[in-house]
Amino acid sequence: MEIKVLKNVLDKNMNQAEQNRQALMKHNVKMVNFISSPGAGKTTLLEKTIPTLQETMNVAVIEGDAFTSKDAERLQQFNIPIVQINTEGTCHLDSSSIESAFAELDLQELDIILTENVGNLICPTAFDLGEDFRIAVLSTTEGDDKPAKYPMLFRQARAVVLNKADLLPYIDFDNETFKKDLQDLNPNLQVFETSSTLGTGLWNWVEWLEVALEKEVKRV
Length: 220
Ligand SMILES: Nc1nc2c(ncn2[C@@H]2O[C@H](COP(=O)(O)OP(=O)(O)OP(=O)(O)O)[C@@H](O)[C@H]2O)c(=O)[nH]1
Ligand SMILES: [Mg+2]
Prior knowledge:
By secondary structure, the chain is α/β, with parallel strands linked by helices. The protein has a single domain, classed as P-loop containing nucleotide triphosphate hydrolases (Rossmann fold, 3-Layer(aba) Sandwich). It has eight helices and seven strands; from the N terminus they run αβαβαβαββααβαβα. Strand 2, helix 3 and strand 3 (82-86) form a beta-alpha-beta unit.
């Protein structure tokens, strides 16, 4: 019985995700879904990524948080459309909340929507939002074993950003194990090493993201 209920929830989510995808394609907007544990650095990475994207594209952000609009407030400095979704304790965004966010945005005027999911390594992976691709953000302090222990996200993601690289000298993080586990899970995965606070490694990441978004345009 419970299994059936869960299946219905996921089916409903998938149907709405497909509609979201159609709406994005109609307006030629690309959407990226950023997923990580709480505090890995999604918002900080967005703070460092948006200024470059903004130079050539019309960017909007959908901020998913269980509570508060703290992250949306941090991004207000960029003068871009931001929609805050509070899930009131639920551990992930779903496709119907994204549909509601679309109603607050002028898709016609946009090129890209960056979606920051609720901080969680598991729940968001089960909910398609209609995005073009997913980015996994992992911080060094979470440990090199996280891809092996939480494989779903790393199988699905187009790229992994290993953030807080500035802390590597102070912690026990085996880069070889980390990269090998990623390779085993998903050989096509792009891996970037960044410090979003110091601003290192960001150039490669942003350049790759711009190209990946461009490819999405061609695919559509
Ligand atoms: N040392 C270091 N700290 C970082 C880095 N990136 C982010 N932080 C810090 O990590 C903390 C969490 O960063 P956020 O960007 O808020 O993380 P988040 O993933 O958006 O968090 P949630 O939205 O709550 O899931 C903040 O104190 C940041 O300053 C980094 O590259 N190096
Ligand atoms: Mg955040």
